[in-house]
Amino acid sequence: xxxxxxxxxxxxxxxxxxxxxxxxxxxxxxxxxxxxxxxxxxxxxxxxxxxxxxxxxxxxxxxxxxxxxxxxxxxxxxxxxxxxxxxxxxxxxxxxxxxxxxxxxxxxxxxxxxxxxxxxxxxxxxxxxxxxxxxxxxxxxxxxxxxxxxxxxxxxxxxxxxxxxxxxxxxxxxxxxxxxxxxxxxxxxxxxxxxxxxxxxxxxxxxxxxxxxxxxxxxxxxxxxxxxxxxxxxxxxxxxxxxxxxxxxxxxxxxxxxxxxxxxxxxxxxxxxxxxxxxxxxxxxxxxxxxxxxxxxxxxxxxxxxxxxxxxxxxxxxxxxxxxxxxxxxxxxxxxxxxxxxxxxxxxxxxxxxxxxxxxxxxxxxxxxxxxxxxxxxxxxxxxxxxxxxxxxxxxxxxxxxxxxxxxxxxxxxxxxx
Length: 418
Fold this sequence. Notes:
The chain is α/β, with parallel strands linked by helices. It has 2 domains: 5-225 and 398-411, 3-Layer(aba) Sandwich (Aldehyde Dehydrogenase, Chain A, domain 1), CATH 3.40.605; 232-373, 3-Layer(aba) Sandwich (Aldehyde Dehydrogenase, Chain A, domain 2), CATH 3.40.309.10. It has 13 helices and 15 strands. The protein has helices spanning 5-24, 28-44, 46-62, 67-73, 77-90, 131-142, 156-172, 189-195, 210-219, 242-254, 275-284, 326-337, 350-359; strands at residues 100-105, 111-118, 121-126, 146-150, 180-182, 203-207, 232-236, 263-269, 288-291, 318-324, 342-346, 364-367, 387-388, 396-397, 404-411. The strands form 4 sheets. It has a 6-stranded parallel sheet, sandwiched between helices. α5 packs parallel to α6 (131-142), α6 (131-142) packs parallel to α7 (156-172) and α10 runs parallel beside α11 (275-284).
């Protein structure tokens, strides 16, 4: 008789729990060595990974996936090399486990400290991007956690090839292969089993579209570290340098349109002197412009006749564009339509920029820089598990430290309360 998703998850969870205990007491050097071996294994498995991805790409194209989704799914030699480099980078990062956050000595002589420890077993549910398999595995192992991965059906072959290479490297480095497990079935009931695995999985991290995240948040019986839409804004202030504004805006939208850090909305101060030139630069780069017909200065590039929805994450070469009344208008617009992911200002006026950085309530806020820097590697964190947009535990790129919690450690000399 075939295992049900629930029994399968119970078995995987039990093995992951055992592996997590091994990892929790594993010295930093041993974890780093095993992750470095996994990176080398990924490099050696490049041809097999690319062959698996070619099959996934063919199946996805036949199924009619969008160009943006196909771009997320696609691997090439450069992307495989970058994936292996990202894993190798994790092996060189400082180990957060055991770090003392703070410490104090009470009047009775009891010494107390908060010390970082692994969370335990992490469940990661993701779509499209097969590189998440390697990134998530490296970060979880590096932070002393076991991980259970469930990728999307569109990347099934790619994920399996990457997982096989990674765990072979782990074993070469002396760590148990059960530290990184991949849910092999594409049965959607397996997701439900993960969400109900209270006591087996300590934290669920969803990486995918709004539907996936909504399901996880609605059904999960374990804590969730959520990553919502990347409805990211670039606000160009009246004080902005025109050439800088053009460069930042075009890069923020067009460098890679299908990533969560891509700009989706361009906001322009109505007093900016070269509105038309700025929008023209974006249009000339191949971006479709969608704006309110009331903004007459944008009309030559407008692809809509009946207004624009500023709450859309296009993940494509499309941008919403709107005029606002200065910094007050920009902050109000982002508060009403943003997703608390990444927002940027282009300005020469430092006071205006500092107000934007202080008042925009997003996980990442930037001054005179592209939103495409919203990435763990660019932040010096190595790979990332995702960009957390909530307000608890971790915000922004979640890497090693974001996958730890802490415990209180007390050292006494026989103190009693009496």
